[in-house]
Specification:
The structure holds two protein chains of two kinds. Chain A is an all-alpha fold. Chain A has ten helices and no strands. Chain A starts with a helix and ends with a helix. The chains are: A mainly alpha, B alpha+beta. At the A-B interface, helix 5 of A face helix 3 of B. Chain B binds a DNA duplex through strand 1, strand 4, strand 5, strand 6 and strand 9.
Chain lengths: 205, 186
DNA sequence: ATATTACTTTGAAAAGC
DNA sequence: GCTTTAAAAAGTAATAT
């Protein structure tokens, strides 16, 4: 019917008008996170696809824009945790996560689970840890993940524990609290992952 | 042979029915000891049975949802108790209201640890939702039977969305086959 | 530092906003 | 979409001891 057609045009126009706002939000959040321009471009492409596929109905523009940025960071291999993303968004973590899963599923993004090693360089530099510690942390993650220890565990907590363990092994000790703060996880999580990883690595303390 | 299918345990059954009679929930809330009714929050009155343990949501239309029972027999038993309670209050209840099972939640154990990362890729990223940052389980939507399976690193699983008792059994056999075909079953 | 308690996910129905 | 009900899985978080 003509009316339905007109309505489609109307919503499409509205979507196009809001596109500018969405992209400016992606830009603002990306700047706050300090991610490269390539990530903003990928996020923009995903948002346009979501708009074309009519995935924005019933959700906030800000929520979809944030979810697209989260997905883009992961696609570009420089993941930000939902906590970090939520810090620069006005949408709460839970909603960002839900929207991301929806967009990811509907657009068939086929995102692979985040590799904890992707967090090692950034977290380590924030803690002023050497390259040796980073290599050791990567080794711990690689080895223990192969043993199946990673299943079901949060990538940030897993990376945090490996960094904590590596800092001890390399005599550049950081406290659990220091590592927990940069990774935005609790000390309890670091403790739990640390124990498992140390045991799986056959290290005694 | 004891296989994963033998480890299946029904954890919750959701069913709906109706007494074929409109109800005054305000009055019912006063007459039924232990009834919770907060129309501002939710239009249904909540009534819990002790044995078998279940919770019923009773609506003004006379339709009832029963949840929390551990078997289909328990659903019938719990609803039977509620029908009798209503009859005691002189509320006319159909002789044998039709009870429809809407969802069965079951748990099972595959008996082996699972590498969820490998499984997510092996089962096909398009059919899988695995976001350990948000939830430790891998969500797998199966078409036949039409159920959703939550798989955990321990090998324990949850099957939900099915309406028949044997849906869980069929689903477990199917998922075991698929995981085994990928060489990911211990 | 450990022990509770609570929240995350899946599915379905009900009436109404 | 949301509201309420129940239950399992296992990880994480907040709070208590």
């Amino acid at each position: 019917r003509l009316r339905k057609w007109q309505e489609r045009i109307r919503t499409k126009d509205a979507g196009e008008r809001n596109l500018q706002f969405a992209l400016s939000e992606v830009d603002r959040m990306a700047s706050a996170l300090g991610v490269p321009r390539s990530v903003r471009e990928v996020a923009s492409v995903i948002y346009r696809r979501a708009l074309d596929e009519d995935l924005i109905r019933g959700r906030s523009i800000e929520g979809v824009a944030t979810a697209c940025l989260y997905a883009a960071c992961r696609k570009e291999g420089i993941p930000r945790s939902l906590e970090e993303i939520a810090e620069v968004s006005r949408v709460e973590r839970k909603e960002i996560g839900r929207t991301y899963r929806y967009v990811s599923q509907e657009l068939g993004l086929e995102m692979r689970p985040v590799d904890p090693k992707k967090y090692v360089p950034r977290f380590s530099s924030e803690l002023d840890l050497s390259k040796e510690v980073q290599s050791k942390a990567n080794e711990i993650i690689e080895t223990t993940a192969e043993q199946g220890l990673l299943s079901g565990k949060s990538p940030t907590g897993y990376a945090a524990a490996a960094i904590y363990a590596a800092s001890l092994l390399c005599n550049e000790k950081k406290t659990q609290r220091e590592v927990a703060d940069v990774a935005q996880v609790t000390e309890v999580t670091i403790r739990n992952r640390y124990q498992e990883q140390i045991e799986a690595m056959g290290i005694h303390t | 042979m004891s296989g994963p299918a033998d480890s299946i345990e029904i954890q919750n059954v959701v069913a709906s029915t109706g007494i074929g009679q409109e109800l005054d929930l305000e009055a019912l809330a006063d007459d039924l000891p232990g009834a919770d009714f907060n129309p501002d929050n939710f239009p249904g009155l909540v009534y819990r049975t002790q044995d078998p343990k279940a919770a019923a949501l009773i609506f003004r239309s006379g339709k009832i949802v029963c949840t929390g029972a551990k078997s289909i027999d328990d659903v019938h038993e719990a609803l039977g108790i509620i029908f009798d309670k209503l009859r005691e209050l002189k509320i006319p209840v159909d002789d044998e209201p039709e009870i429809t099972v809407q969802n069965i939640v079951s748990s099972a154990d595959l008996g082996h640890n699972l590498n969820l990362n490998a499984l997510a890729i092996g089962l096909g990223l398009e059919d899988v939702e695995y976001e350990p940052e948000q939830f430790p389980g891998l969500v797998y939507r199966m078409d036949e039977p039409k159920v959703v399976i939550l798989l955990f690193g321990s090998g324990k699983i949850v099957i939900t969305g099915g309406k028949r008792t044997d849906d869980a059994e069929t689903a477990v056999e199917e998922i075991v086959e698929r995981i085994d075909a990928l060489g990911l079953l211990g």
